[in-house]
Please model this.
Amino acid sequence: MNMENTKSVQNKGLGKYAWPDSFWPEFIDKYWELAPTSFKSPGQEPFINLEELFALVTNMPSRIPSDRFWIARNVPPKSVRDFTMGSLNLFGPQKSDKSFENYFNRVKHHSTGINIHRLQVRQDLWKRTKGFIKNLSKVKGRPPAENWDLDTFFGTYRATPFGIHKDPASVFAFMLMGERTYCTWESDYFTTGDKALQTPDLDKIEPHLKNAETFTVRPGKVFYWPSNSWHVVLSNGKPSVVAQISAYFKHEDLPHWDKKTPGY
Ligand SMILES: [Fe+2]
Model:
């Protein structure tokens, strides 16, 4: 096989992860860094599937401070302090669990949440996500992406442990397991210091749900939100898993961001 043929076979293999060229113009026009939306994934397969993700997160060579493992010590949690931080390597998913299903079964008596970044240590994932970077890094009239990260959230928490917040990022969440409801609010809905922010206390979040735009998503769906959206994830307490593609921006490129904005 000559080089050209080898390349076309590789690209063919990657085709199942690519989103069609026709997807991007309308998405950019209506949503990119403008508004949240959910939709059936236009790719045949997510950039990483459950089995690949489990193998990856139990084989990573190192952890970084933003990789976190929350375990609720008081249920229902009323504050982020009602979660204790566990060691991912000691108490997180282990190779011996073999699957997310077995891992969740092992910790089923606890409300837990895990966020692991830098899935791109598996470098071939960049090839599967290159359409995002190519089409979205530099869009006229929108902030330029400073860097991209691939990460995952999984757990059984009923609300994001650190509550309603913003990120200096545009995020695509690919649902791989379970069901999650993403609640979003426009940038000026909350002001810094609001008691409903940064808490998993549903009593503080619920009064604002009537003003939220909500998106319930299951496997096969993608949820997208821009950096101007306040957001929190709610669930029924059953296991859920997402893999995310995030474009991070410089704070100074975001008109809705100031140094007191509570984000992660
Ligand atoms: Fe977030």
In short: The chain has eight helices and eleven strands.
